[in-house]
Amino acid sequence: MDSTQLDFLCEAHNGISAVIAEEAGFKGIWGSGLSLSAQFGVRDNNEASWTQVLEMLEFMSDATRVPILLDGDTGYGNFNNMRRLVKKLEQRDIAAVCIEDKLFPKTNSFIGGQAQPLADIDEFCGKIKAGKDAQSDDDFAIVARVEAFIAGWGLAEAVKRAEAYRQAGADAILIHSALGAPDEVLAFKQEWADRLPVVIVPTKYYATPTEVFRSHGFSLIIWANHLLRAAISAMQQTAQTLASDQNLFSVEDRVVPVAEVFRLQGAVELQEAEKRYLPLRRRGVQALVLAASRGTELGELTEQRPKTMVKIAGRPLLAHIIEALNATGIKNISVVRGYKKETVDLPNLNLIDNDEFDESGELVSLLKGLRGIQPEQDLIVCYGDVLFNKYIVQILAESEDALAVAIDTNWIESANRHRQADYARCSMPHSRESFSARVTLKHVSAEMAPASIHGEWMGFIKIGADEITAVGELVEDMLRSADRKRAKLPDLLNLLVENGKQIRVRYTTGHWLDIDSLDDVIHAGNF
Ligand code: SPV
Ligand code: MG
């Protein structure tokens, strides 16, 4: 109001319209009585109580940073109600209130304005004084709205009232007019000069160029109800189309995507806050299954499908993996597929393609996987050809460690069967003491002297949400060097250890089976 240039307020009537007005660049918001009552579906006759208006204003104030000028009608009562109103508005960070010199309950100025009685001048001045005395923030402002023209009076009455309100302490005058031309407000401004800033609401004289108001020295223009009216026409069109066409297709391109709704609500801020404040467990755990390779060792069985889709006891191997993951509460499951990828088609999976599965190693699959998952959830990585009891995954999922692996203490059996296995050396062998100790991984290798072996790594890695990006970058680094193109997950684990990362070891015993041969497939039916 005090600025030397003409400024503008845009109407808003709830939190989201206030955000929209602020984003459009308005320096302030008009809490329109007409729009606030209309969005409640009631008339602009104080049918909505003042506390209902106040509550909506609180949402608008919380959602924005620009000042809000409330259209406070007549102050919702006498001087005493006005005092309380000002106090409550200040508590909600509302910058200013406008009161009009009519009687409670008021009627909108554009509905039979000529028949509307005006307030007694002295009584209205008392209301302004009471409001000014009640404010505790010097910047809070009271705008006195002169309805003399609306009620059919002339310029003299309008100026007389405005002067009385100025002397009572008003910070600005809103001069209202229902004419289709700006004659009344221009005449008022000429007579009034610069005694106080003057605010106008050109709803009816909308065709007047803004330049006219600027050159006459008005302070503030209020676009009083246009977001409400825009919303009404959009809602009417959409509702009518939906009712007649009976499909969503007809309207989809004419409405904002839900993502835009989330943006206006500030959904991103909440996601960031969850990262800071929510315990990791509450964010849930996800799984990434590496299943791009064919599994040539199974011969004919994998001619038409990759190993992960070979049937065990009547269902694809992958279905068993999903079932075990689901049983631990993991439902967000991503699968990297490559060979005969179209056959990897189980429902409710985030499918990630590795089309270079033939010429690349498993690190490429891992990298594609890490890029295709949600980085905010802890991750369990496993292979697509392993059957396991759910407790193996559970023990990793529940661990607080940023990096963890499950190590099978029952490795002798693998060694006896002369299977290809990845053996692990850890900071401490499995024992009673290791149960409460913080055992970490030292090295993983297919070649290890039996005396150094503490167990077998089964292919499970837990990567905490906070480590996912770093692990992804390390894998990217590894893939850049030519001799590591076909590196495997154990190479990654060893590099992480070399880089000083603590990889927590969780010892388990048996209860898993990887499918490396036809014998395994047959055996797995009994698993
Ligand atoms: C409002 O927006 O509620 C106003 C302005 O008071 S008007 O409707 O033009 O009276
Ligand atoms: Mg109003």
Short description:
By secondary structure, this protein is an alpha/beta fold.
Structure description:
39% of the residues lie in helices and 19% in strands. It contains 20 helices and 21 strands. The strands form 4 sheets. Strands 9, 12, 13, 14, 16, 17, 18, 19 and 20 form a 9-stranded mixed sheet that branches. β7 (198-200), α8 (210-215) and β8 (220-223) form a beta-alpha-beta unit. α14 (362-372) packs across α18. The longest helix has 20 residues, at 226-245. The model has no long low-confidence stretch (mean pLDDT 93). Residues 32-34, 71, 108-109, 201, 203, 224-225 line the site of sulfopyruvate.
Dominant shape: elongated
Main sheet properties: 9 strands, mixed
Helix/strand/pairing category = alpha/beta
Gyration radius (Cα, Å) is 36 Å
Q: CATH H-level name of the largest domain... which superfamily?
A: Spore Coat Polysaccharide Biosynthesis Protein SpsA, Chain A
Give me the oligomer status. Answer: single chain
What hetero molecules are bound to the protein chains? Answer: sulfopyruvate, magnesium ion
What is the topology?
Blueprint: E1 7-12, H1 15-23, E2 28-31, H2 33-40, H3 50-63, E3 68-71, H4 79-91, E4 96-100, H5 121-134, E5 141-146, H6 155-168, E6 172-175, H7 183-192, E7 198-200, H8 210-215, E8 220-223, H9 226-245, H10 249-252, H11 258-265, H12 267-277, E9 285-291, E10 311-312, E11 315-316, H13 317-327, E12 332-337, E13 350-353, H14 362-372, E14 378-383, E15 386-388, H15 390-397, E16 403-408, H16 411-416, E17 422-426, H17 432-436, E18 441-445, E19 455-463, H18 465-480, H19 489-498, E20 504-508, E21 512-514, H20 518-524
Parallel strand pairs: 1-2, 1-8, 2-3, 3-4, 4-5, 5-6, 6-7, 7-8, 9-12, 9-14, 12-13, 16-20
Antiparallel strand pairs: 10-11, 14-19, 15-21, 16-19, 17-18, 17-19
Helix pairs in contact: 1-3, 4-5, 5-6, 14-18
The structure holds sulfopyruvate and magnesium ion.
